[in-house]
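User: Structure with glutathione, tokens only please.
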Amino acid sequence: MLKLYFSPGACSMAAHIVLEESGEKYQSQQVHFADAEQRSEAYLKINPQGRVPALVLDDGESLAENTAILPYLGKRFGLWPTDPITEARILSLIGFLAASVHPSVAHMWRPERYAADAAVFPQIQEAGRKTFDGYLEQIDAKLAGRQWFSDQYSVADPYLLVFYPWGLRRGYPMQELKSFTAFKDRMLQRLAVQNILAREKINLEREA
Ligand SMILES: N[C@@H](CCC(=O)N[C@@H](CS)C(=O)NCC(=O)O)C(=O)O
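Assistant:
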């Protein structure tokens, strides 16, 4: 049985939603950031990066990184396209979210990763905010006139959703992003999304 290590509202929420959509039995276990559990000896054996998500596979081996976990789950559960161009577009989006959007958020909320001198943290955070705001607007444009990122619902959609509450938490006026907000409302109609938001105690209407 697959087992997901997650933290509420973290980027692991994407894989959590996909597992819930799958209809397959799975386990999920919270990694308690408040207790620095992600850096514990036991967890570092599961993911040496000390991050979530980590997915333990049927053979007991673990897999880290959204860029690997989401395509794997998508192929396993039929939430992945068969057409090579659509596949490339979804991979392009997953890469953009993982390698550009997510690090801009880390600049805002984890400035200590980027400099030892706390005096420069505000500059790092401000740069992260500006970059993240631009990315939120790009996501809104990508979703314009679309129900899902692709013609069919795929693992890209729960991954996009992760950044909506992050935008609220950052204080961006998310309601102004009409396409992203309509997408969030469509996601909220899905039972799996409702279940995981309840389990992770995440509110998509206002900053938690
Ligand atoms: N590149 C990784 C990033 C994972 C990541 O940064 N996860 C965050 C939560 S969204 C985390 O575990 N942070 C814990 C920490 O920095 O101590 C991925 O996309 O899977």
